[in-house]
Write a structure and sequence with these properties.
Blueprint: E1 7-11, H1 18-26, E2 33-35, E3 38-40, E4 54-56, H2 59-67, E5 71-78, E6 81-86, H3 87-95, E7 99-103, H4 106-115, E8 120-126, H5 130-140, H6 145-159, E9 167-170, H7 174-189
Parallel strand pairs: 1-7, 1-8, 2-7, 3-4, 8-9
Antiparallel strand pairs: 3-6, 5-6
Helix pairs in contact: 1-7, 5-6
Length: 190
Amino acid sequence: MSSGGKLIVFSAPSGSGKTTIVRHLLGKEDLNLEFSISAASREPRAQEINGTDYYFISTEDFKKHIKAEDFLEWEEVYRDNFYGTLKSEVERIWALGKNVIFDIDVAGGLRIKSKFPKETLAVFVKPPSIDELKIRLKKRSTETDDKINMRIAKASVELATAPQFDVIIKNYDLETAKAEAYELVKNFVQ
C-alpha cells in the first residue's frame, strides 16, 4: 500500500462524542478530509445505509477478506461481530487527493498508527467520566442495559490505552472539544 495523504484517527469509548467531533471536522473544507467507511459483519441499524455508514458484509465474506489480507486493520469486537478497514477504502480516498479521517475503536486506531507512524495523527477522545458515559449511552435509547454494561466494561479497558495516542482531547464541553480537534487536525494536515 503506497502512502498518499494523511491519516487522522479518532478513537474513544462508545458515547465519548468522537462521532460528533468527526462529523464536525468533515464539514471543514480546508482540512480536505474524507471519511473512511469501515466494514462490519453485523446487520444495519434502522437509519444506517450500506456504503455510507458502513460496508455491511456477511461474517463469511469478512473472514474471506481477512484471509486475503484485504484489511488495514480488523477486529472481532464481539463473537462473529467483525469490524475493519479495507485497504481499498484508504486507497480510494488517497486517489481523490484527500486526507483520511477514521472514527474507529481503540485497537484499530493504534494498529493504523503502528503501520503508518509518520502519516498518522492518533487522537483519543476522553469522556468526563465512566458515569457520564453511562448517562450518554442510556440517552441514546438504542441498546439494552446488557449491551450498555458491556460497552462500559470495554470503556474502562479502552481508557487505559489513552496514553498510547498522540493526543488526548477531554470532551467535557463539546464545543471546546470540536475547536481543539479542528486546530490539531489543521496543524497536522498543513
